[in-house]
Design goal:
Blueprint lengths: L8 H7 L15 H11 L26 H6 L1
């Protein structure tokens, strides 16, 4: 799951054709919708969940969307 503000094209290039990885690149302009997308994208049967976590989506950075508590929750 990529929660960085920028599209994770490197992650996609490496993992998209493996057949055993599901990649979720999230985007959004509204905090509640964004957090709902996080919940929707997480599978119930995942063995491992990897997060590409850039913090430029933080409310104190230029993305201005997520609070520190939102990052903890994710």
């Amino acid at each position: 799951m990529d929660i960085d503000l920028h599209f994770g094209d490197g992650t996609v290039n490496i993992l998209e054709n493996t057949g055993y990885v599901t990649i979720g690149n999230l985007s959004g302009a509204y905090q509640k919708r964004y957090l709902r997308k996080v919940e929707e994208i997480l599978p119930d049967d995942a063995d491992i969940i990897g997060i590409s976590a850039g913090f430029d989506n933080h409310e104190a950075d230029w993305g201005g969307l997520l609070s520190t508590n939102n990052y903890r929750e994710i």
